[in-house]
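TA notes. Do not distribute before section.
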Amino acid sequence: MKKIEAIIRKTKFDEVKEALIAADIEWFSYAEVRGVGTDHEERIYRGIIYDTSYIERYLLSIVVRDVNVEKAVEAIKKAAHTGEVGDGRIFIYPAEDAISIRTGKRGDATLYNSDKK
């Protein structure tokens, strides 16, 4: 199992969500986040200067079976990409175990329906 954390633009959330669902990723959590980075680019929109370091972002947290890591990452990359500064980052970590609170089951079988891989 792996844990994927992705920081994406808030404006790309719906596209990323749909891409993950299309990639058979059935569940993930997300939260609004803020951060500070070294890449700064000012944009002018209707006479107002915007600093890209203040783009609203979401942090997605997804735990997947090893066989689903690459398709989840590719779905996020494709859907979240704009080509501009501030598109975000994806991090992948090992996930040691998973436990279903409701059933008590352990391991990657707790992640999704047992008939899916």
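Switch to the second chain here.
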Amino acid sequence: MNRDATGSYSVTAVAGEQVRVFVPFPLPPDPPLQLTGARQLLLEKATIAIGRLDSISTLLPDPHLFLYSYVRREAVLSSQIEGTQSSLSDLLMFELEATPGVPTTDVVEVSNYIAALDHGMARLREGFPVSSRLLREMHAALMSRGRGSDKLPGEFRRSQNWIGGTRPGNARFVPPPPQEVAACMAALERFLHDDNHPLPLLLKAALAHVQFETIHPFLDGNGRLGRLLIVLLLHHGGLLADPLLYLSLYFKQHRSLYYDLLDRTRTTGDWEAWVDFFLEGVEQTANSAVQTARQLNDLFTEDGRRIQQMGRLATNALRVHGALRQQPLLTLQYLSNHHGMTFPTAAKAMQTLVAAGIARELTGQPRNRIFAYDAYLAILNKDGEPL
């Protein structure tokens, strides 16, 4: 449905040139979203898929293992959209304090993303609401180290930013001027907690994501934080017990359409096209996450069965296999320090897994070796190569 533009334009001077900036109207859309039969079906299918994802604990003996790896996969994908070249293996090696194969700055950005999510989830568990304050706190964690650490971490911007182009004058989109940011964010926060305009939580998250990206309240990190906002809202609203739904891969795979639909909501008010895209993404992403969990469960079960057939070597090999399930990249020193094994015992057990084709040594060096659970990483890395 085409409405008029979903905001107003004004002209301001930026770097010596006159620039049209866009200030969005408060949500919800006016006139309201059209929930046709087809769109209602999309909503129902997406909600059912999320419910299936939320019950993932019934599929896995230890769902926290899946959460650990899946969050890291999301951190890599979300950061890749912003131009980093890190892989999941780089991040895991960085967390082992091993030398990654990419510039450290890239991996730090991914690590910051995990810190921001962890901070947000911890605050929600304390009873803190999804709010401008929470987003500023998460932004401080997101931008605490590496690139962007000099761009006002935790503070709304005090200068004009833009999207695309080399300057505001030829940008694809110019967000509100800095003096309007606080008011725009306050209006978004009121929408998130407004019970007078009840909307299904998925639709509220869809609208809020666009509004946040339109406001672009920070000098850097808006894309990553806008994607985190989705999972925060779904968790806070009770649809997800754990932060397991991430649309970064879907947005990455449909990058051009994603940006086109954001532009269309602003210029023509076609919220419905965006909502359809969003709901399809939720359904696909939730179903994919459930499939990934099942693949991992099958892998762990089959490899565990093979190890149990190794006779006297099985006991310690199973302990190392359990450690690799927790972290699919490991060093022998890490095993010795964190899993109660002597270094020789860890080395012998790991060699048993290497001989069985379950683990693989990466460095080719006699010392400071790093071992990977290749099949585990292959499942997590599907479609996860840098752009």
